Amino acid sequence: MQTILGSGGAIGIELAKALKEFTSEIRLISRNPEKINPTDELLSADLLNRDDVFEAVKGSSVVYVTVGFQYSIKSWKANWPPFISYVIDACKKHNCKLVFFDNIYMYDSNYLDGMTEETPINPVSEKGEIRTKIAQMIMDEVEAGQLTALIARSADFYGPTIINNSMLTETVFNSLSNGKKANWMGSVNFKHSFTYTPDAGKATAILGNTEDAFNQIWHMPTASNPFTGKEWIETIAEEMGVEPKYQVAPKFLVRIIGLFVPIMKEMVEMIYQYDRDYIFDSSKFEKRFNFVPTSYIDGIRKIIETDYKK
After folding, report:
1. Is residue 286 part of a domain?
2. Is residue 50 in a domain?
3. DSSP assignment of the chain, as one string?
4. Is the pLDDT of residue 163 over 90?
5. CATH code for the domain of 65
6. pLDDT for position 165
7. Shared-domain flag, residues 121 and 100
8. 1: which of 6, 25, 120, 255 fits an S-S bond (Cβ 3.0–4.6 Å)?
9. Quick count: other Cβ atoms within 10 Å of Cβ 145?
């Protein structure tokens, strides 16, 4: 049995699709889980309840964490550390291997131009501090020999059928498809990597089913040579057959918008990722598994074909 905690999000869905290549025993856990594959086992659970987490992972050989809590520092501080402690304890009790799907918020902002698994850890945001803490909780248990686990890190992601989960979807794809200007934070002149969610799902499934992949950190396969913000907007607009109109929101404007739009308030501390090159290196995974990431143009075309063709 392989279990996904937080099965309803963009990564959880793609992971469930990919896991069927390795097992027919897949358990999906969320408040209101829905089947992805015909044989999926569904279990409704409150993942902030310790007993529910223990029950959810019981009998599992591998547990994948793809849950996403409300995108606010208040929610993250209150929810992430206790949840991860429950998962660690449950996996130790039930002898489950753990695969934690992570982001790059903990990386030193001076080293975003070519991020690898060895990039220095030095968070510059409160959200980054939370991600640092929970990743360290996991790796401390690994180093102590108490837990078999791995961390799968992704850049910002994009992909088909993502609803309200991708900044690129919300600010560019949706805006352009509705005849509005695309929005971009910081500056459109810097390169920005995005991880394609079907690739991330496949890669996470591969890692969870590869014995020697555990007890280390992996970057999810992500196309190299990313577009600048301007190139992202222009390419998406060209594929949609619309004008590449856009507006840029510098930090002071994001702060003002945040007074009225809660999600934008949360983006103020993250805008540093858009005022410099943000380039994600996944060569470790690509070489180990002979995996070729989906190209940006193919990813864009698939998203438009899936979500925007009328």
Report:
1. no
2. yes
3. -EEEESTTSHHHHHHHHHHTTT-S-EEEEESS---SSTT-EEEE--TTSHHHHHHHHTT-SEEEE-----SSHHHHHHHHHHHHHHHHHHHHHHT-EEEEEE-STTB-GGG-EEE-TTPPB---SHHHHHHHHHHHHHHHHHHTTS--EEEEE--SEE-TT--S--HHIIIIIHHHHTTS-EEEES-TTSBB--EEHHHHHHHHHHHHT-GGG-SSEEEPP--SSPPBHHHHHHHHHHHHTS---EEEE-HHHHHHHTTT-HHHHHHGGGGGGGSS-BEE--HHHHHHHT--PPPHHHHHHHHHHHHT--
4. no
5. 3.40.50.720
6. 64
7. yes
8. 25
9. 8
* Number of residues written out for the chain: 310
The span from the CA of 67 to the CA of 35, in Å, is 16
> For 33-91, what is each residue's pLDDT tens digit?
999 999 999 999 999 999 999 999 999 999 999 998 988 999 999 999 999 999 999 99
Q: Does one domain contain both 96 and 75?
A: yes
Q: Phi and psi at residue 167, in whole multiples of 5°?
A: -60, -40
Are 136 and 258 in a shared domain? Answer: no
CATH number for the domain harbouring residue 267: 3.90.25
63 in Cβ contact with 91 (< 8 Å): yes
Poorest-confidence range of 23-27, 124-128, 147-151, 248-252?
Answer: 248-252
**Do 35 and 63 belong to one domain?**
yes
Domain boundary among 219, 235, 256: 219
Domain span at residue 36?
2-156+194-219
Per-residue tokens: 185: 């934070």
